[in-house]
Fold Alpha N-terminal protein methyltransferase 1.
Amino acid sequence: MDAAGLDNNGREYSTADEMWREQTGDLNKKTLWYREGVSYWEGVNATVDGVLGGFSDVNEPDISCSDDFLKNLLSERFPSSDVINQPLVALDCGSGIGRVTKNLLIRYFNEVDLLEPVSHFLEAARETLTSGAYANSDMHKAVNFYCVPLQDFTPDVGRYDVIWIQWCIGHLTDDDFITFFKRAKVGLKPGGLFVLKENISKSGFVLDNDDRSITRSDSYFRELFSRCGLHIYKVKDQKGFPDGLFAVKIYALVTEAPKKVHRTRSKTLSNRPRKIM
């Protein structure tokens, strides 16, 4: 990857490849990269404020924006008649304490599986989502809790309608980003898709030496999507976050190129001068 970037200490890298060679260029370095990333989060409290890095006030606008995006997505991709005959199933990657599952996914999906490498986060999610009202619901429930790193996970074939990946893909190297999506494709049902919600840098990338992650630019992500054989079906910008935070985008990604809609205009209309808006 040719994108230039810098780390959170201000050090500049001429390319992402240069940074990756330095950080994860051999097996020992790569193992350390992932170990330190998990270790960082093991020292964080299993609370909303903890998993959101001290910015618990973004929880509400985050869920609201994702809710609007998901409702439109499901209505287009999974008509209600299909849902009646085929219950919807989602995978929440980097689920943390189950914040997104609890506030969003479990309302739309009949079954949700959670994937999280930090054990005390996952146990907090399990405690919340298998007790009280959640324990008594047969229609909308959390089913499986996988304490597995993203780079090591392979889903069951054809289980998921949506694989939701939020604020965790930055921990993966570019190579593992690509191999993860290629493996995860087998977990999608026909017509299924990925939803990726992530911080976006203005250009190139920003390396965080503390939690061992990178924030990629939109063009960086699009290059990786192409290498994964994925196509952008829909994209939305997050609104309502405090100033000073990274921009955030939500991408809906499909494995087949969306069909192009060809529109024709009548000669009468095409010959009229067009208004500049």
